[in-house]
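Before relying on records like the one below, remember that each one covers exactly one chain. Contacts with other chains, cofactors or solvent are not represented anywhere in the record.
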Amino acid sequence: MKPSAWQGICLVFRKELTAGLRFRAAWAAMLMFALTTLACASMALQGGSLEPRMQAALLWIILFFASMAGADRVFADESTAGTLLTLRVYGASQAVLFGKLCYTFFLLLVLAAFTVPLFLVFLDVTVKEPLVLLGAVLLGTGGIAAAGTLIAALTTDASTHSGLFSVLMLPVILPVFLPAISLTASSFGADGAGSPYLGAMALYDAILAVGASVLFDSLWYED
């Protein structure tokens, strides 16, 4: 019996999670980058403090560049292992896309759950609006996951994969990245709007997911 779309997504997600837990290089690279950067920032400040907008910008810079160590591997590892053609033959394109997107989102949520508390402790940051911070993290990582999954598929066979991935990611993710910084700064006590940015980020995340879905079929089945 042919699996439903949801079953296909779950199968791809479980495959990615099993492979990720078995070969933990991407997880280790992301978490070590975040930890090292946080430690360096904390030592450089020497007990001093930054204003909320600088704190928010620093947090999202760490999250963005740490995510580059894991999000770009979602299709490259398939190509390296020689399983990409098998997945293309037997996997429905939308199931592959959204299964890998869900895995990337989960990976980034783990990164955020590891990084944000350490950031608050190392830099002695007080969160005044935790729900705003939570919304910014969820929507920000969702946008990075949606854009990262599609761009990882686009750059799989590129000879300079990692560099090209980062260059293409930044302009695509800016409409999520900048509001996420503003929302995070607001949660740290800076003056700024909350709800409008949350709505705009949710809308752009949806546009990224729909755009990835529309483009992925032609990309996945191209000769």
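The CA atoms of residues 146 and 210 lie 9 Å apart.
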